[in-house]
């Protein structure tokens, strides 16, 4: 295999604390596993690390095979810090969330010394508290489970702790509200590193269709209209998501979905709640919004890359969904 054919590897180190909330591991890592299976360009290499080779999880199962905290991390690594619970199943008594003193302090010291520029940090649920104790959230926007927001504010006094957020990305630091919000965060990371098509495929396989953006109260346009189980429609939506700028017609998408154009149109209206053309335009607008906010491309270039025939057509479509024109949206961002 040539170097060009080899997948780009992203080393992922999952920190497993005492009394780990099992879903904080299983949910995000399952997203990465599915992303590895859905494509071959990028591979997430998972290593479970911690101060103890085995821990008792929130549901009473033991988690083993945990390797010691590494002395150094490679550039480009991602560290996921999982949360823990007060009262694991079967203990019969609450336990101090910040307890297990020596073990958790070992994690805190390791985070403090290991998270350097070039290494991404993602916290799930109360994992944010460990990051805060390590001083890694100072001056950043961050969040955690709603029951621990006051603890986070106390541990990171200069941080901007935000409520009512599924997750927040602040540079190389990402925090999530916990439990299933860790899945939302990981889908967003996969979309950024590998592409929306892979994130969509992973979400669909895991039967997670209504994933939202971190600070967006609405459904992400990339995932809106996917709360169904119809295979033919998913085939068409996957094709659109993989290449929004393609000159998609109902006939072309019907060929992808192995159905007639008339039947595909009927399926979209019934299951997606909009026409095929409206869905294509929404996905193109989602791509255009990323280009407007994430680049300095002119509106003609944005329109072309997003699949609109002209900047005028792009602005007309944009104005149907947004109060401000695209240029003003960029300036206000």
From TrEMBL:
Keywords on record: Transcription, Transcription regulation
Signal peptide (from-to): none
Record GO terms (molecular function): DNA-binding transcription factor activity; sequence-specific DNA binding
Domain HTH araC/xylS-type: 234-332
InterPro entries linked: Class_I_gatase-like, DJ-1/PfpI, Homeodomain-like_sf, HTH_AraC, INH-QAR
Highest rank taxon of the organism: Bacteria
Protein name according to UniProt: Transcriptional regulator GlxA family with amidase domain
Annotated organism of origin: Aliirhizobium cellulosilyticum
